[in-house]
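2.7 Reproducibility. Because tokenized structures are sensitive to small changes in the input, we list the exact sequence used for 3-dehydroquinate dehydratase, including any N-terminal residues retained from the expression construct. No trimming or masking was applied before prediction.
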Amino acid sequence: MSRPILVLNGPNLNLLGKREPHIYGHETLADIEADCRRTGEALGLAVDFRQSNAEHVLIDWIHEARETMAGLVINPAGLSHTSVSLMDALSACAFPILEVHISNIHRREEFRHFSYVSRVAAGVICGFGTQGYTLALQRMARLLESAVK
Ligand code: CA2
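Resulting structure tokens (single pass, no recycling of outputs):
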């Protein structure tokens, strides 16, 4: 049985669809999870989808993922721009890491233009709305396929 892909969501993403739809759209995190599951099934990838508002919980899940997951898709939310600790946890992972942002962070405030996570990610998707998650899963399938060849 092959390992699942962990899809991790950082602080405040539980509010998606409930506030600021002009930036993040109308889809809720549950809608995104359903999209990821559908896409994962089509790609033959099991998806483990999680969200936490706590940095230490995200870091603990990343540590655990090192032994249990095949890859990581992460929307680190605001922690992208601030967390050396999250970057350090990610840098200890051997599997592919893909970073997703729903909004185009480069069109927004200057402080969102830099991401610590991008330094350790194999790729970054931003500004594609919630579709970015399923695009990342497609890319993950391709990366894992070429890794076994
Ligand atoms: O565009 C993204 O996906 C972000 O990662 C979202 C983060 C933001 O800090 C990043 O700069 C870009 C914010 C997540 C909070 O989402 C909310 C959703 C609805 C209402 C309030 C916050």
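The chain has a mean pLDDT of 96.
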